[in-house]
């Protein structure tokens, strides 16, 4: 995600960390490096100057709090200032006992239809009942695409294939859902451009018919600074209440899109990080900046710990934390972590590990987890309960044959299981810095 910006900021921080001492010249050099990194990533010039001005002033004048070195304090100041640029974390303010209407706006090709389906699934998983109105009458196949994607989440889509009048489709769609026990109605509209006045006029008519509770602007993360003007034009037509950025998985110019919320005064609420319907995540400025600076995502690690503890069986967690973990518990932990997504995503969110493990190493790790699953499933119940006491050479041979993997892999699993067991006992099952070792991957 935004690899160019991440690498440039990482290089700037390394200069500070490796320096023998901090002086005014070094701080000004850091400021210039940060300016260069942000400008190359297409962040608005005015915002760049504002950030680096505050960075210099605070780095020169603030006294680090007790226990924090001056170098660490300067990195924290940079973290704070970049987080401020991106605003605060935002939540939808859904009103109970009514159908909350959300309209999606954006220029053509920004990914609105895909976002509508992703958001429908995201909200459904949060327990909301969702309906969708497909009012994109300009792009051939938009309604079919929307229905196909929403079908996977069990979300109904209202649309009229032969009607080209978007405002009437929205009106009919809202009437169709009247009386339905829905919490949210998402309205997908056709892509606009700030120069296409007739389309913006139509958007105004849709807005009057829909009377939405929230207008979300969907911005393509690859278009750079253009999106500042686009956002401004949309905001003048319909007040934008939130921003969703798409295609941040591949963009080197995402800085422009991230700063576009300044044009509307609206917060970034969600970011799209891939093609799959699950690749939409709630946007957290502090997490995002943590990843950019290679500092990891402390909150993500805490969330992972909480999820593992909440979803794990109480008896199992007590057994694990007391150092009595068996092989079934070990497999359960592997399964729980795999629910969180790819290992690369978990690694990128870990303080001290972000960016340190290469893609091919991650692939090897994920392959190893898959092997171990088969090996553990080839053990008897007694062997899973007491692998250290029962697994002699003849049993290892049998398990290897049953799983289809060499004996060496079975021994490797046993070695990592023992290491994990010791680590879990020492950390009482909660020290998530050791998640890799807990998974037997350390």
TrEMBL record:
Residues 98-275 form the AAA+ ATPase domain. GTP binds at residues 106-113, 188-192, 246-249. CDD domains: SRP54_G. Its main location: cytoplasm. Pfam families: SRP54, SRP54_N, SRP_SPB. It comes from the Archaea. Residues 423-442 are annotated as: Disordered. It is found in: Cytoplasm. Belongs to the GTP-binding SRP family. SRP54 subfamily. Involved in targeting and insertion of nascent membrane proteins into the cytoplasmic membrane. Binds to the hydrophobic signal sequence of the ribosome-nascent chain (RNC) as it emerges from the ribosomes. The SRP-RNC complex is then targeted to the cytoplasmic membrane where it interacts with the SRP receptor FtsY. This is Signal recognition particle 54 kDa protein. The gene is srp.
């Amino acid at each position: 995600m935004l690899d160019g910006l991440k690498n440039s900021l990482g290089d700037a921080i390394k200069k500070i960390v490796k320096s023998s001492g901090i002086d005014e010249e070094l701080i000004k050099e850091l400021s210039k490096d940060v300016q260069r990194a942000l400008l190359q990533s297409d962040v608005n010039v005015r915002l760049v100057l504002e950030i680096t001005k505050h960075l210099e002033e605070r780095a020169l004048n603030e006294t680090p709090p007790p226990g924090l070195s001056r170098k660490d304090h300067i990195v924290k100041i940079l973290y704070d200032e970049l987080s401020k640029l991106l605003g605060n974390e935002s939540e939808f303010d859904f009103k109970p006992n009514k159908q909350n209407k959300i309209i999606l706006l954006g220029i053509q090709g920004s990914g609105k239809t895909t976002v509508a389906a992703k958001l429908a699934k995201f909200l459904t998983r949060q327990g909301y009942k969702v309906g969708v109105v497909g009012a994109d009458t300009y792009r051939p196949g938009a309604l079919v695409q929307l229905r196909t994607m929403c079908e996977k989440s069990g979300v109904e889509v209202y649309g009229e294939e032969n009607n080209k009048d978007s405002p009437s489709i929205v009106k009919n769609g809202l009437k169709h859902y009247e009386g339905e026990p829905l919490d949210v109605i998402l309205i997908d509209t056709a892509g606009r451009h700030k120069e296409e006045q007739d389309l913006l006029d139509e958007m105004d008519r849709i807005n009057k018919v829909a009377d939405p509770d929230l207008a979300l602007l969907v911005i393509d993360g690859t278009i750079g600074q253009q999106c500042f003007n686009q956002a401004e034009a949309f905001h003048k037509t319909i007040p934008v209440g939130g921003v969703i950025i798409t295609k941040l998985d591949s963009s080197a110019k995402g800085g422009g899109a991230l700063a576009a919320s300044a044009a509307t005064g609206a917060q970034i609420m969600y970011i799209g990080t891939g093609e799959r319907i699950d690749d939409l995540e709630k946007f957290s400025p502090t997490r995002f900046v943590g990843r950019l600076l290679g500092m990891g995502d402390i909150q993500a690690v805490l969330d992972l710990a909480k999820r593992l503890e909440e979803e794990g069986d109480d008896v199992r967690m007590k057994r694990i934390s007391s150092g009595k973990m068996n092989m079934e518990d070990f497999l359960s932990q592997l399964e729980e972590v795999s629910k969180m997504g790819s290992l690369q995503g978990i690694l990128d969110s870990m303080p001290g590990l972000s960016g340190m493990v290469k893609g091919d190493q991650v692939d090897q790790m994920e392959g190893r987890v898959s092997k171990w699953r088969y090996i553990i499933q080839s053990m008897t119940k007694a062997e899973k309960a007491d692998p250290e006491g029962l697994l002699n050479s003849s049993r290892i041979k049998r398990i290897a044959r049953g799983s289809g993997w060499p004996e060496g892999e079975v021994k490797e699993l046993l070695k990592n299981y023992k290491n994990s067991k010791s680590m879990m006992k020492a950390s009482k099952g909660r020290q998530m810095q050791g998640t890799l070792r807990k998974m037997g991957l350390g």
